[in-house]
């Protein structure tokens, strides 16, 4: 997409700027202006162009950080490389700006070559006309940059308007009420899969849950295996909801049906109330950290884990596939070599509703998941499975993808 956008915008800029330059010369509007005023005009046209460039640069930054794409290939390459190498969002933004400006300056070269080259080799174009041409081309380029910036902003605004925002619209209680009053088909499958996955986890090590939301239903499966459980989410309100459950506050969510299902999946055919309470107590004792995390950050937590579990987080936090890939790389990057990554995602879903509000989903499937993990995780020692859950009417998705994968101890060069 970036390549296509770069080619299209370069071509459009060239056509618009060159046509404007030629039209200004042909119009004869500046034919009788004195040489000094002509130089002032050219200088002013550069100022306008610089202003347009600034607007374009800012819009490009917004496009890059929200979607991972750009209308300038060099800018995106610089952004991605710097982000991967340094892990610093600020350094990546500076690199993106440098890439954008360099590419835009390079686009100026053909105008100098065309204008002054023709003036030197041919008598049909005077140096005065070359200056008028440059000024006209600069003004058109400025208008073009402003137009492109406006278009980019309008595109981003429309995307933003389509979905509710975690920062302003997410209400933990609504999510719990809408999805976790009973154990629904997707969770029957997810919990069974997670229980099985925990048989492959290294025992006696801390386990990280990334993007846990206000929920604990997946956490019970890890309580016996983990030495400690660390729960991470983007929203403090979600972590506060978990804290209420840990502290047994009145009104805290009732997770007992999910604990019971977990125990059944583990092979306890008729879990008693005491069994359920014992697992809740064990889980409370193992949770040692509540962490505020952000998948947009290349290193969302400053340590690596033998086991990381992230359910319905990366795919349920964005509607953009490139952003999902980025989030997945950041989250799975928290698994240390040889460690286990367990994840779940809504399959081919564009959005799910919470209390009537649509939250985004990345519209991914099992092939996307395999592709995003294959560089660092071995598919042979793992499993990716699809379960059809037919919850389209209630929640907006018909299937889920479940995955367990082991991180390679060495990078794969094959
Ligand atoms: C659909 S909920 C899933 C919660 C829980 N894992 C579950 O299975 O119910 C999506 C979660 O992603 C979290 N999230 C959204 N943006 C995030 C980000 N940038 N970094 C980390 N988590 C994020 C939200 O706070 C929310 O808790």
UniProtKB/TrEMBL annotation:
Protein name from the UniProt record: NNMT/PNMT/TEMT family protein
Gene Ontology process terms (BP): methylation
Keyword field contains S-adenosyl-L-methionine: yes
Coiled-coil features, chain-numbered ranges: none
Gene Ontology terms: cellular component: cytosol
Lineage: superkingdom: Bacteria
Alphabetized NCBIfam families for the sequence: GntF_guanitoxin (NF041360)
Annotated keywords: Methyltransferase, S-adenosyl-L-methionine, Transferase
PROSITE patterns documented for this protein: SAM_MT_NNMT_PNMT_TEMT (PS51681)
Gene source species: Catellatospora citrea
Pfam name, any one: NNMT_PNMT_TEMT
Single GO MF annotation: N-methyltransferase activity
